[in-house]
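Batch manifest line 162
LIGAND: zinc ion
JOB: complex structure
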Amino acid sequence: MPKMLKILHEPDPFLRQTMKPVQDPKDPKIKKLIEDMVFTMRKAHGIGLAATQVGFDGRVIVIETKDGAMSFINPEIIKKSDELEAGEEGCLSVPGQYGSVKRHARVSVQAQDTEGNSDVYDAQGLFARVFQHEIDHLNGIVFIDKVESFSTEDLAGEGQLI
Ligand code: ZN
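JOB STATUS: finished
ARTIFACT:
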């Protein structure tokens, strides 16, 4: 059974660390971590979660997509649009704070799955935004570092925490 993981909040110093690459994506421990992360993300009403946020030192993220929850191991942005888009963000690790962040409108992300296969994902819109937010987490970057104007309300009214 998947279990609820504890989500770290700012200013926990672990959120500022760079996560290590996953050496063996087929390790059953990684599969279990992903199950727990998806469970935790959904319970917390998030649409994205990085291993950093649950205190696991490994490059793993999960994202809720229109096709269900997807997991990405060792994700890397290999292509990004010059075009930037501003959008409202909130974060499960920064409760009650929202703000507008500029992100690349489109990104291509290379990542591995739990079989160890590598694939490339082309993302735009919210999916591209969540990818960038979560990969930032793996590098010790929290969205508040990039916010142009803060708000204590979810101005976009989307209630999407990532
Ligand atoms: Zn976040």
